[in-house]
From TrEMBL:
The keyword Transferase does not apply. One of its GO terms (molecular function) is DNA-3-methyladenine glycosylase activity. It comes from Roseitalea porphyridii. It comes from the Bacteria. Keywords: Metal-binding, Zinc. GO terms for biological process: base-excision repair. This is DNA-3-methyladenine glycosylase I.
């Protein structure tokens, strides 16, 4: 199949592999697509990090956040939930002065708040992983956007909307339905690699072998 006959939502890389279009051939974004996006995760720290970073991404591109991810990890104690929950006003001031991250007071304070809410959720459910994976959508649920397949900035589903509402009731912030769905895509709760992307089959195998917490 040549490039002219590739279905919408796919592009061929310099290595000849066909992938989802959204990485745009950028090396760091391409590596994220191939090695991380959609592969199932049950580590609470990684889940917390991704949900926080998706909140920081609101209004920006994910590539911007991805390129600052190491800075965010350094600034937020590698997203250790208990450590972030102990952050106070001095830490907010420190973070507002950190040019390596997104210096948005509301998002910084949200991350600290969400760490405290995450501790509460873990005490109830045993782990963040157990809570989120218990809400894994069925295989027939699809994003409510007309131009799916493909990653869009306006994607949400009934499940992401329901999770968003639950989290907000528990006091979480910057967890709207679109943010939650991007989190679900990245952490493997769904496999949104476009049909024909070489990663799609690998992710399906990984999801099938994944032991839900």
């Amino acid at each position: 199949m040549d490039d002219e006959t590739l279905p919408e939502g796919l592009m061929r890389g310099e290595d000849g592999r066909v992938r989802c279009w959204w990485h745009g051939g950028k090396p760091d974004y391409l590596a994220y697509h191939d090695d991380e996006w959609g592969r199932p995760v049950d580590d609470d720290r990684r889940l917390f990090e991704k949900l926080c970073l998706e909140g920081f991404q609101s209004g920006l591109s994910w590539l911007t956040i991805l390129r600052k991810r190491d800075n965010f990890r350094a600034a937020f104690a590698d997203f250790d939930i208990e450590a972030v929950a102990r952050f106070g006003e001095d830490d907010v001031t420190r973070l507002l002065g950190d040019a390596g991250i997104v210096r948005h007071r509301g998002k910084i304070e949200s991350t600290i708040n969400n760490a405290r809410r995450a501790i509460e959720l873990r005490e109830e459910a045993g782990s963040l992983a157990a809570w989120f994976w218990a809400r894994e959508p069925g295989p027939d649920e699809r994003p409510a956007v007309a131009d799916y397949p493909g990653l869009t900035a306006m994607t949400k589903t009934p499940t992401s909307t329901a999770i968003s509402k639950e989290l907000k009731k528990r006091g979480w912030s910057f967890v709207g339905p679109t943010t939650v769905y991007a989190f679900m895509q990245a952490m493997g709760l769904v496999n949104d690699h476009v049909e024909g992307c070489w990663c799609r089959r690998e992710v399906e195998v990984a999801r099938a072998a994944f032991v839900r917490p």
